[in-house]
């Protein structure tokens, strides 16, 4: 099995779905660690309730110090790859270069449209009739790495940010675990 670390910043609904996937006996993943940059995030407790080690590393104001602390924790646990599941910090090139094709992210839009932290709001403001979610590899340029999978969601006239984000997250919850599994499989069979 591949050793996986999940990075979160919030409620961790995607993280829970990754944990569920890894609990499947036929999975190629072991979720070894959850890292969260926010001490008050609900996801930390939710991971612990599921028996997963979850630690908080506050981001502070120095990105290199922050990433160095993360790196040490990953190395200690022999992590093979990282899933960003609602992790709202930008990783430096120095960090992403250490994990080429070994970091995947879930983003709530059809990339390359609506990059950044307000993807759902930007899609509504643009008046698009379809949006969705994207799973992609993480590279130095934000939300621009190679796309692995996408799912489409129709935007209804009465949607607001909350209703639209809920619909997008339903798609994320089914898509991201499948993508994690595909990446894990490719790592396990290439070792
Ligand atoms: C997810 O919808 C994810 O796509 C989004 O944050 C949410 C986290 O929800 N990520 C981004 O916007 C990244 N730019 P969760 O904590 O319940 O999984």
UniProtKB/TrEMBL annotation:
Transmembrane segments: none annotated. This is phosphoribosylformylglycinamidine cyclo-ligase. It comes from Panagrolaimus davidi. The chain holds residues 579 to 769 of 769 of the full protein.
